[in-house]
Amino acid sequence: MQLAVISRILGILLSLFSLTMIPPLVISLFTKDGSATPFILAFVIILFIGLLFWLPVKNFKNDLRLRDGFFVVVLFWVGLGLTGSIPLLLSNVPDLSITDAIFESISGLTTTGATIIIGIDNLPKSILFYRQELQWLGGMGIIVLAVAILPMLGIGGMQLYRAETPGPVKDTKLTPRITETAKSLWYVYLTITIVCAFSYFLAGMSFFDAIAHSFSTVSIGGFSTHDQSIGYFNNSLIESVAIFFMLVSGINFTLHFLSFRNLNIKPYLNDAELHAYLKILIVICIVCSSYNAIAGNYENLSDVFRDSIFQTVSIATTTGFTTADFQNWPGFMPLLLIFSCFIGACAGSTCGGIKVIRILLLFKQGVREIKRLIHPNAIFTIKIGDKPISERIIEAIWGFLAVYVIIFAILLLVLMATDIDFLTAFSALSACINNLGPGLGEVSQNYYEINEIAKWILCLAMLLGRLEIFTLLVLFTPAFWRR
To answer: How many Å apart are CA 154 and CA 151, to the nearest integer?
Structure first.
């Protein structure tokens, strides 16, 4: 382990993160909301910590190895969650404990959207903006942004990129050099954010709300500037904009890049994962709409489709915006929506969950096993489109699912041991490990009421979900530390 290299990179990244205090500071000074001091202090503290890591090893320029990359990513996300809580902790509004401030910070950065704050409408605008900013930065991964900057500082980025984006498509490059890949992803991300903000503004949001909600929509984060989330606006056009951009943000950003670059929609038309993603959403929308209509939950049919489609897209893409109290819907629907967040959206997007590509490959593997029972001597190849999938990828997905289930079961038991009922514990863990946000039971509105031990467990779940489990767990294996 090259501790000097790791210390240098962490110092640079934390120093860069300190700059994120400037936009909310400017807003605070402009609106005179009284929150300038916390952001000034946070800027100084985080910059000081960054320099403390960087200065002693600033001239140490060895190449970063893959093992170091995993270590940097985990340390950085943990460090970011801790330091990101500083302005929330120092602010008088909201008045948060250390646990609550860290929970809110990690929830924002991991784009989970689970909040412990009551009275969001009354928060200073600078704090509101900061929460949204955390989600926007976390959406594509600050590490991916960093790999576009670090080569300029003499640090290679491929190891960080691979550690930050685990999964079956992690080695996909859009351009020959990893730096250009990171830049391409961020150009696409920024473009979609700008278009989303402009669309929200035209649909009826204020300029501030439009920018704030574009951050949490494109990042699939779910934080809002209002307690009632998108339901605050009671505007079908705003909800339509949200649905569209949640769908777009749930698509692999590689497809967006290829489509934008070539001015061609063929990348979308030829992608099997995207087809499966849309089919799953359509089926759940039909089920929810039909059941709500039959149950007589709404006075008119238009509201049935409006709420059912919005909540399906929001929960299934792990965004977490709400326009209705879906937890009060009849029958199995609340649980169906929670189950949908386990699938999530496409790999290479800003969503959480297991990802559609893994579910699709697991389904194809199940079909193959049935065929093998009928034709034991036949050879069946699993394909996505026309491309055969290697057995190594299938094995990795089975391994991921096995570890995911085991970790989920252990954390669920530990949560229930803190005296939380099953429904609350199951939905809270589902929402946090899949980076969704809203749950059922005691966490249907916010996470304020649950105990502090449970909040720390859920912080771990959010980090596990954001780093897709293996990136974090690999640090706890003896093989990782063995030379």
So the answer is: 5
Other residues' Cβ atoms within 10 Å of the Cβ of residue 456: 15
Counting DSSP H helices and E strands in the chain, the numbers are 23, 2
Give how far the C-alpha of residue 252 lies from the chain's centroid of Cα atoms, to the nearest Å.
13
Nearest to 69 by CA among 461, 474, 403: 474
Instruction: Give the residue-averaged pLDDT of 253-263.
Output: 87
Residue linked to tokens 């001091």? 37
pLDDT at residue 123, rounded to an integer: 95
d(CA 38, CA 124): 12
Residue 152 is predicted with a pLDDT of 45
Tokens of 406: 């085991």
Dihedral sign, Cα of residue 455, residue 95, residue 15, residue 145:
positive
Query: Closest Cα partner for 288 from 317, 309, 302?
Result: 309
Span of 49-53, 161-165, 190-194, 477-481 with lowest mean pLDDT: 161-165
Bridge partners of 383, per DSSP, are: 388
User: Residue 200, exposed/middle/buried by CB under 10 A (0-12, 13-18, 19+)?
Assistant: buried
Nearest one of 222, 56, 60 to 136, comparing CA atoms: 222
**Number of other residues whose CB lies within 10 A of the CB of residue 74:** 18
CA-based R_g, the chain, Å: 22
Residue 82: which residues within 8 A CB-CB, separation 6 or more? 102, 105
Burial 242-278 (b: 16+ CB within 10 A, else e): bbebbbbbbbbbbbbbbbeeeeeeebbeebbbbebbe
Angle between helices 207-218 and 236-249 (to 10 degrees): 30
Amino acid of residue 350? T
How far apart, in Å, are the Cα atoms of 482 and each of 370, 476, 478? 41, 11, 6
Q: How far apart are CA 396 and CA 58, in angstroms?
A: 38
Closest CA to 422 of 412, 437, 411, 432: 412
Identity at 456, one-letter amino acid code: W
- The whole-number pLDDT of residue 153 equals 46
Q: Would the pLDDT of 166 be above 90?
A: no
Q: Report the alpha-carbon distance of residue 296 to residue 288 in Å, rounded.
A: 12
How does 95-120 read in b/e, with b if 16+ C-beta sit within 10 Å?
ebeebbbbbbbbbbbbbbbbbbbeeb
